[in-house]
Amino acid sequence: MTVLTEHFTVEEFEDSDTAARLRIDNSVPEELMKNLLATAKMLEKIREHLSFSIDGEVPIRITSGFRCYKLNRTIGGSRNSHHMSAHAADWVAPGYGSPYQICTKLEFRMEELGIGQLIHEYGRWVHTSILAPSTDRNRVLTATSSGYKHGVQFA
To answer: Which pTM was predicted?
Structure first.
């Protein structure tokens, strides 16, 4: 295991059932490791914030981290997905609550946590991307089967 931060490894970000099934190499290229580290550090801040708010540990489970171009295209990801540059992760934290509850907790702390984009996706997971000069700043969305809506909404 290649440790990035106290609670996250490179392998967690590379893991993909689709990539394994289709034999797609989803290894993070060396030139993107700096981005991946920044994303892991953002998730550490989020984990700490959620844990502090309930006075207990809140593990984060990454459901989709880095995606190589081929994997992103295969799953129908956005052509501009921050996952391909290792700037984003989709995740859940059942120890805290639902993705909706998590997003409502994070939406007013985005700057201090280093979140550039926060998306409550389909009521099933949280998408966060790091605050970077080339990305949307403090953009909060809810993704539903009918499209994107501004703000955190119950999906």
So the answer is: 0.94
